[in-house]
Amino acid sequence: MTFQALLASKTGDKISTSVVSLREQDLMPGDVVVAVDYSTVNYKDALAITGRADVIRQFPLIPGIDFAGTVEASSYPGIAVGDRVVANGWSLSQTHHGGYAQKARVKGEWLIKLPAAISTKDAMAIGTAGYTAMLSVLALEHGGLTPRHGDVLVTGANGGVGSIAIAILSGLGYRVVASTGRLEESDYLRGLGAADIIDRRTLAEPGAPIASERWAGAVDSVGSRTLANVLAQTRYRGVVAACGLAQGVDLPASVLPFILRNVTLAGIDSVNAPQQVRIEAWSRLARDLDLRKLARTTHVVGLAEVPEVIERLFEGKVQGRTVVDVNA
Question: What global pTM score does this model have?
Answer without folding.
Answer: 0.91
